[in-house]
Amino acid sequence: MTSSSSKTRPNEFALIARLFAPLATLPGAFGLTDDAATIAVPRGHELVVTTDAIVEGVHFLRSDPPDTIAQKALRVNLSDLAAKGAQPVGYLLALSLPGRIQLDWLETFARGLAKDQREFGISLIGGDTTATPGPLTIAVTALGIVPKGRMIRRKGARPGDLVFVSGTVGDASAGLALLRRKAETPRTLIARYRTPTPRLLLGMALRGIASAALDVSDGLLADLGHIAEVSHVRISVEADRLPLSRDLRRLGGDPVRAATAGDDYEIAFTAPVRKSAAIARAAANAGVLVTAIGRVGKGEGVALLDGAGREIAVSRRGYTHF
Questions:
Q1: For 44-97, how does the pLDDT look when each residue is reduced to its tens digit (9 = 90+)?
Q2: Are residues 106 and 200 both part of a single domain?
Q3: Which residue range(s) make up the domain with 238?
Q4: How many domains does the chain have?
Q5: Three-state SS across the chain?
Q6: The CATH number of the domain where 33 resides is what?
Q7: Around Cβ 211, how many Cβ atoms within 10 Å?
Q8: Is position 310 within any domain?
Q9: Is residue 6 part of a domain?
Q10: Is 172 contained in some domain?
């Protein structure tokens, strides 16, 4: 992990030694004293690799607490591993720091990482730190393992499958709206935006059950569109069946908005009808709500249906960066 230093921060080696080396607990990380790390993959397993970056003003607010920013950066990547049925092992961290970021901010940031490392049983194994004149940018590459041939892909949904989603949808978008209005409640919605919960136990339990899966980051309809595209199927979602939290309903939560809002980081997946009992057991064991919200059919694309089975016109299916 190399760095460009600034007057507001220790030099690169002091910063690494003080804040990040203590997070590198795997033997193959070498205490961040080398230019690379080694990962031992258990016999009969494969390595699963995913990466996501979060950018100030796009994925988090400048006013968000540094520890929650760290946790979000890590958790959005763990969410990807969860949707693949992978068990997380470690991660790489790349920081692009503007000059205003000082040591006390970084110390709180590192505490957020340490907390999540304990919760999810993972270790920092390396990365990079640079200065930037632009916004704060954090990129994480997460590594996980899965038994050979058992990773759950996007491709695999078949006509006749049911469509499911974990947890509730629309909360994070509502949380962001509250923060932009300087509101402090409901805290549950704000927490869903700042610190999403990767459904790791559920994802691992869905191996051999789900026919296709991904995590919901850009919006339920937009992300289900990826499954529909690579599986060459049509997915129909029933608006009335979308799981909305009590706090979102109290704010007049709109199912159409919930279906197109980003940052949920739930698992959306498909599975044969005969797997319904197994899914219920997996959900109960993971302690996660799982709801059947639609079906897979022949055709292409994704449709949101009203109670009468009519397609609801949706102008924007989810968040797009470009």
A1: 999 999 999 999 999 999 999 999 999 999 999 999 999 999 999 999 999 999
A2: no
A3: 162-305
A4: 2
A5: CCCCCCCCCCCHHHHHHHHHHHHCCCHHHHHHCCCCCCCCCCCCEEEEEEEEEEEECCCECCCCCHHHHHHHHHHHHHHHHHHCCCEEEEEEEEEEECCCCCHHHHHHHHHHHHHHHHHHCCEEEEEEEEECCCCCEEEEEEEEEEECCCCCCCCCCCCCCEEEEECCCCHHHHHHHHHHCCCCCCHHHHHHHHCCCCCHHHHHHCCCCCCEEEECCCCHHHHHHHHHHHHCCEEEEEHHHCCCCHHHHHCCCCHHHHHHCCCCCCEEEEECHHHHHHHHHHHHHHCCCEEEEEEEECCCEEEEECCCCCECCCCCCCCCCC
A6: 3.30.1330.10
A7: 21
A8: no
A9: no
A10: yes
pLDDT confidence of residue 321: 62
Domain endpoint, select from 147, 173, 193: 147
The verdict on 67 and 195 lying in the same domain is no
Enumerate residue ranges in the chain where pLDDT < 70. 1-9, 319-322
Distances (CA, A) of 16 to 32, 81, 97, 129: 8, 27, 14, 9
Same domain, 218 and 168: yes
Residue 59: partners with Cβ closer than 8 Å, 6 or more residues away:
72, 76, 263
* Count of all residues that appear for the chain in the document: 322
Q: Is residue 1 part of a domain?
A: no
- Considering the domain architecture, whether residues 75 and 102 belong to the same structural domain is answered as yes
Last residue of a domain, one of 85, 113, 147: 147
